[in-house]
Write a structure and sequence with these properties.
Two copies of one chain form a homodimer. With 237 residues, the first copy, chain A, is an alpha+beta fold. Chain A contains four helices and nine strands, in the order E-E-E-E-H-E-E-E-H-H-H-E-E. In chain A, strands 1, 2, 3, 4, 5, 6 and 7 form a seven-stranded mixed sheet that branches. Chain A has a two-stranded antiparallel sheet with strand order 8-9. The structure holds a DNA duplex (30 and 30 nucleotides).
DNA sequence: CAGGTTTTCGCCTTCCGGTTGAAAACCTGC
DNA sequence: GCAGGTTTTCAACCGGAAGGCGAAAACCTG
């Protein structure tokens, strides 16, 4: 029985120049010559998919600048690429704003909302990655992976706005993140812009190990062990 | 180059007898004879992973009773099964409470919090499925896939309690779901229990197409199109 | 110093989820 | 039929979270 080949692909996202962008490289050869595709490649014989994608990304971008990598989905349509079948495990990668990794000549950052012609199903993968990021920004602390080590509230606001696709309030953003205990002032202040203005305080994310926290549960467990259901037999009070 | 084989597996969850359970079958032959494993099998040459898992599940359980199927994750450790390498795409499947599908003799429902000895990495997959379900119950309307077509608030409370692993308040559950516009009374009432009590009103989930709605965003877009940043002057970037 | 700009902060309002208690609607036993 | 028990439902309250607004703070340049 002939087994399908397996590849790993990553949609590496970063906020740069006020827009959310994805790392793509331009294909020089057929198939799909000239079109843009995601970094990745064949899965090695002794590595799992996560190890593989990190190894392959290292060829395009400094892995140490990847603040977050997570599985996105499997793309397995039998005809998703011409020729012999290839199944792809897609990843979402995040690079903090401000960093500008060295990339090969054929590689560049493209706005996810205005993609160039993409190869195969890579365009769909990018959109899935974008949607996943937008969802998770709301109910996790994934924002740390998009932000530089230190930032002002205004900078963070721009990052969130670019990633979410709508303007968010700086006031609100600061309050929400502070209340969750994610934001800590460093004490330093940023220099005001050329047109003046009050110097902004610098912040950093508290979570030093930079783990994604659990999403916020909406239906929480009751405070007192025993909720509702007053009719529990043998009321011992 | 020898390619790894690819299999699909599903953790099919259902609330039955007040506990969250998963569908497992007992292996008759080596390897791992006697241990319990997830339904699934090799990916066919002309099907994508979702088609494949639905086909393979049909052998164990009536697919029409599966209210929800979604990709969970790829498990790809090189040695996750003995012998030639096999990569697994795992799925989460949900069966509404109350249904009792026909299953083969070697197959049964086991509490996810007290699993029997499991084969390979299937135990870990079940736990991942459980965690995914618990997360999504909070911030999506995934609950519809666990509930029968009609139900009382008490019944729904039991389902949520079993799935989440802690008791939830019926009052609260009803209000939260109602406020999101997910609950609609059918007008009918259920017969009271043997010990009497007020007859409970029947409800159903409104979402007839049974789609998982977007998660509840926390950082919402501003109400009036133009938020904060009153000083947004000629920013040319 | 006046006027412009940007950040920060406090206050207010709204909304949501959690809690509680009481009322409603049924049962059984006397 | 009525008393007492059981279950569901609902209204009211509370605290906390998030959005909106404007004033104050802190800087710039002319």
């Amino acid at each position: 029985m002939n087994q399908p080949a397996h590849e790993v692909l990553a949609a590496v996202l970063q906020v740069r120049a006020t827009s959310l962008r994805v790392l793509l490289w331009q294909r020089a050869k057929e198939p799909e010559a000239g079109r843009w595709s995601l970094p990745g490649g064949r899965l090695g014989a002794t590595e799992d998919v996560e190890t593989s994608i990190r190894r392959q990304l290292a060829e395009k971008v400094d892995v140490r600048q990847l603040a977050h990598v997570e599985q996105l989905a499997v793309f397995s349509a039998p005809d998703r690429v011409p020729g012999p079948r290839v199944i792809a495990t897609a990843f979402l990668g995040l690079v903090p704003a401000g960093l500008d990794p060295e990339v090969p000549d054929d590689t560049g950052w493209h706005p996810v909302d205005a993609l160039p012609p993409t190869a195969f199903d890579h365009g769909a993968i990018v959109l899935r990655a974008r949607d996943r990021l937008r969802s998770k920004l709301s109910y996790t602390n994934l924002g740390f992976a998009l932000a530089p080590p230190e930032f002002t509230v205004s900078e963070l606001r721009e990052i969130y706005s670019a990633a979410l696709g709508y303007r968010v309030s700086a006031t609100n953003l600061q309050r929400v993140l502070s209340r969750r205990g994610l934001l800590a002032p460093t004490g330093a202040t940023a220099a005001p812009g050329p047109s003046g203005g009050r110097p902004a305080a610098q912040f950093r994310f508290t979570d030093h190990d930079m783990q994604v926290t659990d999403p916020f549960a909406v239906l929480r467990p009751p405070r007192n062990g025993q909720p509702d259901q007053r009719a529990a037999k043998g009321r011992t009070t």
